[in-house]
Design a protein that fits this description.
Elements lengths: L2 E5 L13 H5 L4 E4 L10 H15 L7 E6 L2 H4 L4 H4 L3 E5 L10 H8 L1 H11 L10 H4 L6 H9 L7 H5 L12 E6 L7 H12 L4 E3 L5 H4 L1 H9 L3
Parallel strand pairs: 1-2, 1-3, 3-4, 4-5, 5-6
Length: 230
């Protein structure tokens, strides 16, 4: 049996994984869903501490392999927790991949995300100059009931400190890493991610159906990929 540690993206809520969690538990695995701190002074180290504390609280002696799964912005914080939780594997999902010394605030311009998003919107027949809209960019393939539940919750957003702190590691952790990427991700388009991931991690992305929030839009398909790590 494995332990899955599920780290959310920018909203910081463990709820993001609520449809994936039972799929993993049904196969007998331990699942730890992490909710990240929201106070404005919380930086990447506080996020990594929260991941470690969640594991200690839920699974003091977690069964191995310990699989650390990170969605979107979680790509900045989850690697910092690898040593703290004894992670055996990392699975990134539509994630941001940092360089040493790069802040999450700098990542957007350094990677050219805005241009990639606009180009994908144009190719998709949408307005390339449209402002970000959660329903359009994130929830376009999420069932309506799940979308309404998500958007009805308080929208705190990540602390500003997370975007300001330079990524502190000298290199990516020496832990086997997979990258799962949604084919229809409007926020981090597939070809954009292929280039970033190949350049920064030296691996290829594995393409899944769906957009930026597969844990909400295609939880069974995502869980099936994660179960390959057990």
């Amino acid at each position: 049996m494995a332990t899955y540690v599920l780290v959310p993206g920018a909203d910081g809520q463990g709820w993001y994984w609520h449809l994936v969690e039972p799929e993993l538990r049904a196969h007998g695995h331990t699942v730890v869903t992490v909710t990240l701190p929201s106070h404005e002074s919380a930086g990447l180290d506080a996020f990594a501490d929260a991941i470690a504390e969640a594991v200690r609280a839920a699974a003091p002696a977690p069964p191995h392999p310990v699989v650390l799964v990170a969605q979107s912005l979680g790509g900045f914080s989850a690697p910092l927790a690898c040593d703290r939780i004894g992670a055996d594997r990392i699975v990134l999902v539509n994630a941001m991949v940092p360089r040493p010394g790069e802040s999450a605030g700098e990542w957007w311009g350094n990677t050219g995300q805005a241009d990639a998003r606009a180009a994908y919107a144009k190719a998709d027949g949408r307005d390339p100059d449209a402002a970000f809209d959660a329903r359009t960019d994130f929830f376009h393939d999420v069932p309506d009931a799940v979308t309404e539940e998500a958007l009805a919750a308080p929208q705190a957003g990540p602390p500003a400190a997370v975007f300001a702190q330079p990524w502190p590691l000298a290199s990516w952790p020496d832990v086997p890493t997979r990258f799962l990427q949604g084919r229809e991700d409007r926020f981090f388009p597939l070809e954009f991610q292929r280039e970033v991931v190949r350049e920064r991690l030296g691996i290829d992305v594995e393409v899944l159906p769906g957009g930026h929030l597969p844990a909400l839009s295609r939880p069974r398909e995502l869980a099936a990929e994660l179960l390959k790590e057990a």
